[in-house]
Amino acid sequence: MIYCVEDDAGIRELVVYTLQNTGMEARGFADGTALFSALRNEKPDLILLDVMMPKMMGFDVCRALRAEGDNVPVIILTAREEEEDKILGLEIGADDYITKPFSMRELMARVKANIRRTAMVSGAAAESGMSAGGALTINTENFQVYKSGRPIELTQREYELLTFLASHPDKVFSRVDLMEQVWNYGYVGDDVRTVDVTVRRLREKIEDDPASPRYILTRRGVGYYYSTL
Hints:
Low-confidence stretches: 122-131
Largest sheet: 5 strands, parallel
Oligomer: single chain
Structural class: alpha/beta
Strand content: 15-25%
Shape: globular
Helix content: 40-55%
Number of strands: 11
């Protein structure tokens, strides 16, 4: 089930129709209040979330979802071109963003990539059942990460990035590699910035000192890797 939260009825109906026409279940909501009412009864597989809405801005809706511990994948829909708005969406826990005006083909590619990514959830790491390093433990059976025995709340994208890197210890991946392997789509414009933001958020949660990381390291000019040293 895909939820589309968009106050523009024309866009909302077109998105829902397109999703349904490709065989997906989809529902539309005009604002965040209606979304939260629906969430009490059914949790979707993904939420398409407009930024500029009445009652609650999309950013506020995303913040509230993450504050409640809801890690459902969220794709921000924004008419804003400013880089800081895209980064803000990622900083508050959105998994992806798409800028209006967008084609239905592009939207479907993003939706399918996120759905496919959810279904795949770090298959390589799951084969081992458990990955560990230092005080950090990844339990791939219940999709939970622990630090010194205490659970860490990660978004789904953060969890998948961590498990992907941890399943290939000490191997360096470029931002484009990670977009393809974790985000499940190739390089598109400045989208690789999303990798940097997600790495920064992940470090803030798993590292003792995010400025001097122990687990997710940077190979300058190349990319990121999971260190076993």
